[in-house]
Design goal:
By secondary structure, the chain is mostly helical. It has four helices and no strands. The longest helix is centred in the middle third of the chain and has 25 residues.
Length: 103
């Protein structure tokens, strides 16, 4: 999956938390989110806030689908509410897929 396909897939599955997302799909969308947020922040703080709010739901959805791909529940994302939880999730998100769909 390339950059454009990843963005298209993630935005078309805006609030779909079921299914699986591959590593490239997740990381390309993560890069897109960072680039758009930085660009919006350079223009205006209000625009940056709106972009962050607009991308919150698709980023949570693709994060949950990525966790499903490694055999974990999407509820693990609640660890983001803690300080150290991001590092645990980062470890999960870089894992290869598990199960019969693993290549």
């Amino acid at each position: 999956m390339n950059f454009g396909q990843s963005i298209s897939t993630c935005l078309s599955k805006y609030a779909i938390f079921s299914g699986r997302a591959s590593r490239p799909e997740y990381w390309w969308f993560f890069l897109f989110q960072v680039l758009v947020s930085v660009a919006a922040g350079m223009i205006s703080d209000k625009l940056s806030g709106l972009v962050s709010l607009g991308l919150l739901l698709p980023s949570l959805a693709v994060g949950a689908r990525r966790l499903h791909d490694i055999g974990r529940s999407g509820w693990w994302q609640l660890l983001l509410l803690t300080g150290i939880g991001f590092f645990v999730l980062l470890y999960f998100w870089v894992q290869p897929p598990k199960g019969e769909w693993a290549d």
